[in-house]
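Milestone M4 deliverable, item 7.
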Amino acid sequence: MAKSKGPRRMHAVITVQLASDEHATAEARVVSGSYEIEPRAGATRQELFKAVQSKVREEAGLGDAPLAVLFWSLEPDELN
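Output delivered:
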């Protein structure tokens, strides 16, 4: 089977920590997320990083609180 020449589906994992105690609660100091992404043709790693960071902010209700990225991984989702 021929492989598609379009963008590959990617798997992203991110863990962030609230960088300021004034925005943190005991439950929300560290937040992680795992996402499948289908990037548009020509997308950059920077664009995907920002999209994933926005997604984890939205899901955790972090708004514009300052974050420290503790872990970031972006790799092809397909194993072969």
